[in-house]
Amino acid sequence: MTYLGIDLGTSSVKLLLIDDAQRIIGSQSAELQISRPLSGFSEQDPADWIAATRQGAQALRTAHPVAFAAIRGIGLSGQMHGATALGADDGVLRPSILWNDTRSHAEAAALDADPRFRAISGNIVFPGFTAPKLVWMRNHEPDLFARVAKVLLPKDYLRLWLTGEHVSDMSDAAGTSWLDTGKRDWSDDLLEASGMGRDQMPRLVEGTEVSGHLRAELLSEWGLSGPVAVAGGAGDNAAAACGMGTVAAGRAFVSLGTSGVLFAANDRYRPRPESAVHAFCHALPQTWHQMGVILSATDALNWHARTSRESPAALVAELGSTLRTPGVTFLPYLSGERTPHNDATIRGAFVGLDHATDRAALTQAVLEGVAFAIRDNLEALRAAGTELTAVTAVGGGARSHYWLGILATVLGLPVALPADGDFGAAFGAARLGLIAATGADPLDVLTPPETDRIFAPEPALRDAFDHAYARYRALYPALRD
User: Fold this and answer.
1) Which has the closest alpha carbon to 104: 122, 80, 123, 131?
2) How far is C-alpha 240 from the chain's CA centre?
3) What is the DSSP string of 21-82?
4) Chain-wide mean pLDDT for the chain?
5) Shortest CA distance to 293 belongs to which of 170, 395, 194?
6) Cα-based angle 273, 97, 46 (whole degrees, multiple of 5)
7) Burial 236-248 (b: 16+ CB within 10 A, else e)
8) Which of 275, 301, 350, 437 has the fewest CB atoms within 10 Å, i.e. the most exposed one?
9) Which of 182, 178, 184 is nearest to 207 (CA)?
10) Distances (CA, A) of 153 to 80, 130, 167, 173, 200
């Protein structure tokens, strides 16, 4: 038997096929486009998600016909927070409003001012979350709002097409501002406060549970005999954690992607919204996770590369292999910051420039600034009661051993680099599909990857980096004021 993971990202849909031993058989991706009709708007047509999934499935079937025909389970992962509003006939009422859309900032602030939201959902109401988007519709598109019969998150609209079922999983639902995250159920109070009702919400399941089965029409279209179970799945970061085996309390990973994420699995619910730490349900029953997010990680290095007219790899190569003492300070707030400041208007800076500052010093400062921002996340997790003893690094930035050495020293934690492989959200989704289809023990399936190398903190530089971090921390209030 084989299992299919479908990850509905912002820029593409990725499909990945694994066998019973979790060996990757093949993967395919199909691109997606974002529409930005006005400043701050970010939308996609849900029909494009289906078309891209169909395209990827057909390519995967052509490349691996025997393995594709043996699919028995499907898992779903997807971009979180998007609002896909459906009418009574499940017709899409308007383009889906995505996670990075900021039009509902006033509505988000109004909801966040209601103390019930932080108390029940465990999180700040960010403009990117789902609830304020529906309030925006009520304020600006009242005729459409009056017709809303269901609201689905992006991956759950794909599920509706796959199974005919209105279902979401706990981890994705936790990012709506409508979930009682501790009780793992919709909150009638939060729904009512945003003009919604429980009847407009999908049914909730755990990420490892069967949410439905592939429709007969798709079984025929894809040449499958069935039945094919479709797992509850997970939001993208929780799915990536399933791919990384970050599911037991104390396990954590740091993602150096366009944005940066510090993700820690928990065996209990530990909200701390005032620090802008996300406290969400995990994809496994009775597990949760905390997550700090910075908005510019490799994006900061890419910006520096563009302004320097050089590639990021070439800039990092100029630093050599031996860590340097910190010098110039960089604050990576190029598009505001999420954790711990929740500040959309703050912007970045270089501080401490002098005549001796060269390009390599600026590159070093950028790498350190991102590492300091991730340490801010670590300190926020500590304040929320989570202590980490090690982290695993993933994402494009993890290809830089120099950067991982800085990160280990700044965090004061060993940083593990996994062996080569694809351990992302699509792989995690495929694992969830395997669990749902076979009833396997999740902890037997969601194991961590082999470690290629561990980067330890550099003792000789620890004091220097601690002083540099203290300087970095002092600069945010100065810039803000």
Assistant:
1) 131
2) 8
3) T--EEEEEEEE---B-SSTT--EE-HHHHHHHHHHHHHHHHHHSHHHHHTEEEEEEEE-SS-
4) 95
5) 395
6) 130
7) bbbbbbbbbbbbe
8) 350
9) 184
10) 7, 8, 9, 8, 12
Residue 223 is predicted with a pLDDT of 96
Per the listing, tokens 């350190």 go with 368
Q: Which tokens hold the place of 111?
A: 């909801």
Query: DSSP labels for 215-260?
Result: -HHHHHHHT--S--EEE--EEHHHHHHHHHTTTSTT-EEEEESSSE
| Six-digit token string for 453 | 């190398």
- Please tell me the number of Cα atoms within 13 Å of 232 on its side-chain side: 22
Give the pLDDT score at 385. Answer: 87
For residue 335, the model assigns a pLDDT of: 85
Distance, CA of 13 to CA of 10 (rounded, Å): 8
Longest dimension (CA), the chain: 70
Question: Identity (one letter) of the amino acid at 455?
Answer: F
Mean pLDDT to the nearest integer, 248-253:
91
Query: Hey, which bits of 139-183 come out as E strands?
Result: 150-152, 167-169, 179-180
The question of whether 180 is a catalytic residue gets the answer no
Other beta carbons less than 10 A from residue 221's beta carbon: 14
Dihedral angle over CA of 272, 273, 278, 283, nearest 10: 70
Q: Length of the chain in residues, anyone?
A: 481
Distances, alpha carbon 45 to alpha carbons 94, 98, 154, in Å: 8, 10, 10
Q: Which of 156, 236, 299, 376 is catalytic?
A: 236
Q: pLDDT class for 16, splitting at 50, 70, 90?
A: very high
Per-residue tokens: 247: 């599911």
Residue located via tokens 């979401």: 168
